[in-house]
Amino acid sequence: MTQPPTLSCQPDPSKADPVAERITRYQWIVLIIACAGWIFDAFEGQLFNITREDMLRELLGSDQTRLKFWGDFFLAIFLCGGALGGIAFGSLADRIGRKPVIAITILLYSLFSGLTYFAYAMWQVAALRFLVALGVGGEWAVAAALVAEIFPQRSRASAGAIFHGSSTLGTMTAAVVGMVVGTHWRYAFLVSVLPALLLFAVQTGVHEPQRWKDAQAENRKLGSISELFADPRWRYRAIFGLLLAAVGLGTFWSVVIAGQDLTRELLRHNGWDPQRAAQQSKFAYGFVQTLAMGIGMVGFGVMAERMGRRSAFLLMHLGALVIVPITCYLPQTYWQMLLILPLFGFFTGSMHAGYAIYFPELFPDHLRATGAGMCFNGGRIVAAPMLWLSGTIKSHLHLQPAVVAMSGLYLVGLIVLLFLPETKGQPLPRE
């Protein structure tokens, strides 16, 4: 089997200086700001998932086949927009700095998500979801690179896991808003303008990392996508990192969020009123499953430090392969579903924290946001056809076998892991 190319990195000064391992007040402030941006980021993404049935029913009617198809179609549009935004803004952040790009991306997703209140046509929803996704994808790439760069080596995995795991608060907030507005989905999107207030914290609390300043002073090709793919070291990591993210993103939008749909269908099958079933399924997904996902994401950081990055990914992919069919077919009552959804959320969702930990560790200072953005958001491009496939399968099969079929993608993730390097205990590469 081909082995990943080896890299020579400069020694990490934090290994020789115990003081460098201490987490400073500024590092905590940046982590909090990064988490807040990612929380609102996840809120914008999940708000559509929480409200999409009410939205699509108003715009399309009650045809279940069309509802399932268009629901996954809009998710695919979101993935494509996120991919473009992540790659473009990741490269821009390496060129002009982390601080201005974080501000731009937050403004972008909050503004266009709020404008969804005025959407009355399918093309309008599609265009707005694409523009929201530009900001969502870009914010993650920059924030993940920033967190990795300012935290010492010993704390990097935990900080990255906390950063990505904070997204569950965004999902919970979206669930609360969805439950409060009920079928009046437009009001939910008015709340989306609030993240713009975070711009003040970004402007006053964030400074450019010294590592990026040093790379700029050395006249490196900052944010060069051509260099990323021209150098075999970075090209290799970008391609397989992208494929790993594609598995996680494709299964997230076709399998993980199906926890809500599986619960709703179970309740309807058991004779529950459709409106009550919809509300309870929002609670089951937005709180029960999502809380377990958050615990799993934070726990992934601990596992990544103890077991290594690849071993932690391996464990979560194997667990997901087992838990998905169990969740689809075993529960027969609402309480049984509530008992099993935490395991479903833990194994299918926790691996996503690994992307925030792992991808910034694969690339040098002058290409870190570019490479991380390429992996995570380039994975959206590859994952987008999976959403069209998911929509097609769900329109021809019952939900349970369709979800189990899409979970087969976790097998692909296991294969991809064989071609990626272990970064545990290694300093961030400089060149």
Give an overview of the whole structure:
The structure is a single chain. The model is unreliable at about 1-20 (pLDDT under 50). Helix content is about 80%, strand content about 0%. With about 425 residues, it is mainly alpha-helical. The protein is globular, with a radius of gyration of 21 Å. It is built from 20 helices and no strands. The chain has helices at about 15, 25-60, 65-95, 100-115, 120-150, 155-165, 165-180, 185-190, 200-205, 210-215, 225-230, 230-255, 260-270, 275-305, 310-330, 335-350, 350-360, 370-395, 400-405, 410-415. Helix 15 packs antiparallel against helix 20 (about 410-415). The two termini are about 25 Å apart. The chain has a single domain (about 30-205, about 225-415), classed as Growth Hormone, Chain: A (Up-down Bundle), CATH 1.20.1250.
Give the topology, please.
Layout (H helix, E strand, L loop, with lengths): L12 H4 L8 H36 L3 H33 L1 H17 L7 H29 L2 H13 L1 H15 L3 H6 L7 H8 L4 H8 L7 H6 L1 H25 L1 H12 L4 H34 L1 H21 L4 H16 L1 H8 L9 H29 L2 H9 L1 H9 L14
Helix pairs in contact: 2-3, 2-4, 2-5, 2-6, 2-7, 2-9, 3-4, 3-5, 3-18, 4-5, 4-9, 5-6, 5-18, 6-14, 6-17, 7-14, 12-16, 12-18, 12-19, 12-20, 13-14, 13-16, 14-15, 14-16, 14-17, 15-16, 15-17, 15-19, 15-20, 18-19
One letter per element, helices H and strands E, the order comes to: HHHHHHHHHHHHHHHHHHHH
Distance between the termini: 26 Å
The CATH homologous superfamily corresponds to: MFS general substrate transporter like domains
Radius of gyration, taken over Cα atoms and rounded to an integer in Å: 21 Å
CATH class category name: Mainly Alpha
CATH architecture: Up-down Bundle
Helical proportion, percent range: over 70%
- The total strand number stands at 0
Poorly predicted segments: 1-20
